[in-house]
Amino acid sequence: QAKARGRNRLSFFEPAIQDALMRRSRLEADLRAAVTREEFTLYYQPQVDHTGTLVGAEVLVRWNHPHAGLVPPGEFIPLAEETSLIGPIGRQVLEQACSRIAHWNSLGLGQSLTIAVNVSAVQFRDPTFVTQVLDLLSRHGIDPSRLKLELTESLILDDVQGSIVTMNRLKAEGVGFSMDDFGTGYSSLSYLKRLPLDQLKIDRSFVEDVTTDPNDAVIVRTIIAMSRSLGLDVLAEGVERPEQRAFLVANGCQVFQGYLFSPPVDTSTFEAMLTGRIGFVPSRR
Ligand code: C2E
Ligand code: MG
Ligand code: MG
Ligand code: MG
């Protein structure tokens, strides 16, 4: 009732806000239906080492909307997180990713690749998360070390001790962890060394101007040095130009992801890359 009254008052002063609220509740209803209809589809973005060899891929979800077409995650993941629809969406993403890996295994494809999946805070904090992941892996007969979970700094910082416990349970079975968008949060060395991480993923925002902005160059060099002293792998995301790749290689970063190599591609395109039927196709941008 209070809500209804609030809404009336808003409509009296601010029709634009009521519009926005209406769009949002329509989107939420659509998203709820999308979960039931399983309208999510996975794209794969190649991860490549300094020799140009495919070493893995990041799974990036898209919503295949019946009218709007492919909706990028930035347009529905935040709402999914607020409405806890992220729980079932995250489960569908993991399920699809695992059944793909199992399918590739059955064809003898990409068996040395690590597949990285993004995990949201709400999903990670679910007390059943660990058993969900382990059940999926065993149901599909997948070696847990094929899976890497991407967590953000803010997710971990929110509850460092709880995160360590959850990570350790999965880590004990072989699941890997990468810290996504690294450098955009408030990580300190003191807790970084307590986390059972395998990889730091340098945020695209630092890679963008790394060859022209001395501050970004220092940050990127520091992250690379930090990962080395912690014994972690380091991957640079958002690599778009050869100069960026050259800088990264010269400074000791040996795994890359970005439009220079390939944008995220649909399943059949990625499978064509796995069979070697097609090479990487850089994004024109
Ligand atoms: P992210 O995990 O940092 O993923 C990287 C984003 O950068 C992707 O955007 C990718 O398409 C984009 N990208 C890759 N290479 C380049 C490049 O060279 N240049 C530029 N400008 N961009 C590049 P996308 O697919 O729109 O995903 C956005 C974000 O949505 C992801 O950021 C991730 O945080 C989230 N997300 C995606 N899939 C999932 C999912 O299954 N679950 C959850 N919880 N979040 C997801
Ligand atoms: Mg990611
Ligand atoms: Mg990222
Ligand atoms: Mg990012």
Can you offer a commentary on this structure?
The chain is of the alpha/beta class. The chain has 13 helices and 9 strands. An 8-stranded mixed β-barrel has the order 1-2-4-5-6-7-8-9. It is globular, with a radius of gyration of 20 Å. It starts with a helix and ends in a 10-residue tail after the last helix. The mean pLDDT is 93. The site of ligand C2E has 23 residues, from strand 2, helix 4 and strand 6. This is PAS:GGDEF.
Topology:
Elements: H1 2-13, H2 15-37, E1 40-49, E2 54-65, E3 69-71, H3 77-82, H4 86-107, E4 114-118, H5 121-125, H6 129-139, E5 147-152, H7 153-158, H8 160-171, E6 176-182, H9 189-192, E7 199-202, H10 204-208, H11 214-229, E8 233-237, H12 242-250, E9 255-257, H13 267-275
Parallel strand pairs: 2-4, 4-5, 5-6, 6-7, 7-8, 8-9
Antiparallel strand pairs: 1-2, 1-9, 2-3
The structure holds ligand C2E and magnesium ion (3 copies).
Ligand C2E is lined by residues 45, 60-61, 72-74, 77, 90, 93, 118, 120, 150, 180-181, 204, 237-240, 257-259, 264.
Structural class of the helix and strand makeup? alpha/beta
What sequence of helices (H) and strands (E) makes up the elements?
HHEEEHHEHHEHHEHEHHEHEH
Ligands: ligand C2E, magnesium ion
Number of helices: 13
Strand content: 15-25%
**pLDDT below 50 for ≥5 consecutive residues: which ranges?**
none
Domain EAL: 24-278
Protein name: PAS:GGDEF
Organism: Pararhodospirillum photometricum DSM 122
Subcellular location: Cell membrane
